[in-house]
Amino acid sequence: MKKNNSEIMKIEYNKLFERYGSCLDAKNLMAELRCGKDKVYRLFEQKSFPSFKLDGRYMITTANYVDWLNKLPNYLGGYYTDNRVS
To answer: Most Cβ neighbours (<10 Å): which of 41, 43, 71, 79?
Structure first.
């Protein structure tokens, strides 16, 4: 049975929540996105990225992170899809 987008989002949320709890910080995002500190901090500073600062630390809720991921083009439940025609 094929999963719909909301089911995939729930699975993705649950995996991230088990790993990091209700919020992700810069170190968590570096691990998840497999990128360096500079790129993560540039992402946090973008207005389109739904993050906040708490005691001087950038954070994003797990739910907002999953929502943001699923708004990216070609992203589906932890995997980027390849829409090229063979």
So the answer is: 43
